[in-house]
Amino acid sequence: MIGFPDVEIDLVSYFASAFTAEGETVKVGTVKTPPDDDQPDKELVINVAYNGEIDFVMRDATATLEVYASSYAAANALGLLVDKLVRGATGSVIKKAEVLSGPLRLPEEGPQERRALDVALIIKGTDE
């Protein structure tokens, strides 16, 4: 039987390591910091939706990557860095990562600036 890994976990790990390598301090997760908590200067929230199976061992998915930062310029810079880094996320599990749109500026009700990227992913299954 073919199983598909939790790509959100893989992407969280990948981006956390990639930001460290770039010298950036960015909180990475699958849930936004609650509004009543202290907001990090920079944050990346990853959400993956699985689509259909392409064939027996491949599946496609769409990831929404939301970038939050404390200023307009920081959000732009972080959005562009995420755009660059996601293209390098391929490996044994993610076979293809293609940015469909973004980074786009989105309205945010809090004091932070928000950008979003939509990414198409091709995921390889593994024997379970």
Oligomer: single chain
Derived from helix and strand composition plus strand pairing, the structural class reads alpha+beta
CATH superfamily: Phage tail protein-like
Low-confidence stretches: none
Radius of gyration, in Å, reads 15 Å
Give the termini distance in whole angstroms.
6 Å
Supply the CATH class. Answer: Alpha Beta
Average residue-wise pLDDT: 90
Q: Into how many domains do the coordinates divide?
A: 1
Strand line-up across the major sheet: 2-3-4-6-5
User: In the CATH hierarchy, what is the architecture at level 2?
Assistant: 2-Layer Sandwich
Series of H and E elements: EHEEEHEEE
List the helices and strands and how they pair.
Layout: E1 2-3, H1 7-21, E2 27-29, E3 42-53, E4 58-69, H2 72-86, E5 94-106, E6 113-124, E7 126-127
Parallel strand pairs: 2-3
Antiparallel strand pairs: 1-7, 3-4, 4-6, 5-6
Can you characterise this structure?
The model has no long low-confidence stretch (mean pLDDT 90). This protein has one domain: STM4215-like. The protein has a 5-stranded mixed beta sheet with strand order 2-3-4-6-5. The radius of gyration is 15 Å and the shape is elongated. It contains 2 helices and 7 strands; from the N terminus they run βαβββαβββ. By secondary structure, it is an alpha+beta fold.
Compact summary:
The chain contains two helices and seven strands; from the N terminus they run E-H-E-E-E-H-E-E-E. With 128 residues, the protein is of the alpha+beta class.
